[in-house]
Amino acid sequence: MAKKLVAEQMVLTANRLADGRVIYLGADGWTIDLDEARIVRGAEEAEGAEEAGRKAVADRILVEPYLIEVVTVGGGVEPARLREKIRCAGPTTGHSRSAA
Amino acid sequence: MYRYDEFDAEFVNDRVAQFSDQVRRRIAGELTEEQFKPLRLMNGVYLQLHAYMLRIAIPYGTLSSTQMRKLAHIARTYDKGYGHFTTRQNLQFNWPSLEDIPAILQELAEVEMHAIQTSGNCIRNTTADHLAGASADEHADPRVYAEIIRQWSSLHPEFSFLPRKFKVAVTGASTDRAAIRAHDIGLEIRRGENRQIGFRIFVGGGLGRTPMLGKEIRDFVEERDLLAYLEAILRVYNRWGRRDNKYKARIKILVHERGIESIREEVEAEFAEIRGGALDLPQEERQRIARYFAPPPFEEGPIDAARLTEAMAKDPAFAVWVERNTHAHKQPGYTSVTISLKPIGGVPGDAKADQMDSVADIADRFAFGEIRVSHEQNLILPHVKKNDLPEIYAALAEAKLATGNRGLVTDIIACPGLDYCALANARSIPIAQRLSERFADIERQREIGDVSIKISGCINACGHHHVGHIGILGVDRKGEEFYQITLGGAPGEDASIGEIVGKGFSADEVVDAVETLVDTYIRLRTDPKESFLTAYRRLGEAPFRDALYGEASRAA
Ligand code: SF4
């Protein structure tokens, strides 16, 4: 895994093994909806989330879990970085997106 | 046309069965991701931002209508209804699920296609002039040699674990449409004194982090010695290529660091040893393969020039399309047609399933069922009758495939970039779309004339930005997308690597910056016949830099 992310609010993300779809660690299990993701704060919670990620890798639910930074926008959160915004919302290219 | 031989069929079927089993074991937990990843990559399966991506080889860019229909079927059944043609003459599906990939590979095998050697440190899909076998300026069909190289390099035990990936391109025409000097090995077919075929060979070209043009290693290698000479190059590379540093592992670095003379000396020594041995290319074998590429049954007959002229006079859009998208053919009465995959505001290289079906139908009706893919991310009907152009145009227009912009400013090459690619720093496609919209007016495009814009979303340069007349490279500047512009690159027989013109631009600014460059060229060209590239080479970068950054920047 890349160097440890330190941010105020984080979410654990990965790609689902079976279809590669972007998923997030939820309050309880895994979700494709960022709004349902578990917000992780501080080193201890981060370690807990990563542990859940490792377990899910072992259970063949997903691949390549890692933490991302999220920021509060309106009533919810969104990823801080563009790469993760695009992973969350899909390609920004018009016909491809509507097909998605 | 090329046919798979029995060896290929058997091998590909075995590979499908093997990979199906590997996927099953991965999902059942018998293989870990670490164990599985190299196996999936060997079969062209990548993990991108949103999903898996399957990269399918289209050997030397040649597709039959049957194969195209199969791709349409796969797009519809297993993907989201479209596919993406790349600058490597490959096709990528962006959304297959892992569980479906064995079935997709099975379907591909039915039409003699596969995804082998589209990844990994091996010899990749050999690319060739997309007008092979058709263009008027061709002296020999490059596909014959691309196929010979494909057979030699497929699963070559000695070259399956090279220091790094290895790309070969072949041209057989006086105009280099295959960008041979941007490849690890570039082959230019030549005729010798007695018109016998031989090859001028370039080595050590490549784009990416350290762009270099291939250097001539030999001006004439005889036809029968081709594989022996290539094998000699690969052996020298395999021996000395740097495996300690991924960024220095390509043959271009070896050639650069040791000098072409020293590499030539070693290659020649190696060649002297293996020449005339097992790799000797016998005449019969060459002829056997050449027969795969026999010309289609052309018809002789009068050209109804009046009808064509009349149709062009009636419909200006058709006239522009004929002017831009048809190419001189070696057979009288025939022409090649570019099907632009660059509609205004579209995604360069994307084709919907229905469009793929339409192209297949049109190819069957008018073009002997033959289709080509160009590294410029367009499709080509290599052999059509000039008399049929009005009907072909009408059929393409119905499928929304009749954009008459080949080689114009909206015929933009763009890699998938940050919309899909896990390695990207910035988006490419939306920049291409906005540029295309900015220059949408076809009259303005024609006034500008030939100019190529090429966009890559990171330094890996899949969008060939180094060889764009205007190159755009996406970088990450403190979390923001930023774009560096290079000028004066060119891929062909007069190849050059573009030069960085100055500091980069934000996503908001970059379209304006390109427009400024184009306007500057229009202002400074001697006359409309002087192309962007010619004008740039005459003027140098100073006036362009001044236009972008103000004259004050020059003092700095
Ligand atoms: S150039 Fe970079 S961003 Fe574009 S497709 Fe290649 S690796 Fe991805």
TrEMBL record, chain A:
Highest taxon listed in the record's lineage: Bacteria
InterPro entries in alphabetical order: DUF2849
UniProt name for this protein: DUF2849 domain-containing protein
Species, as recorded: Lutibaculum baratangense AMV1
Organism phylogeny: Bacteria, Pseudomonadati, Pseudomonadota, Alphaproteobacteria, Hyphomicrobiales
From TrEMBL, chain B:
Superkingdom assignment: Bacteria
Provenance organism: Lutibaculum baratangense AMV1
Keyword Hydrolase: no
InterPro entries: NIR_SIR_4Fe-4S (IPR051329), NiRdtase/SiRdtase_haem-b_fer (IPR005117), Nit/Sulf_reduc_fer-like_dom_sf (IPR036136), NO2/SO3_Rdtase_4Fe4S_dom (IPR006067), NO2/SO3_Rdtase_4Fe4S_sf (IPR045854)
Domain Nitrite/sulphite reductase 4Fe-4S: 119-272, 410-544
GO MF: 4 iron, 4 sulfur cluster binding; heme binding; metal ion binding; sulfite reductase (NADPH) activity
Spans traversing the lipid bilayer: none
Name the record gives this protein: Sulfite reductase [NADPH] hemoprotein beta-component
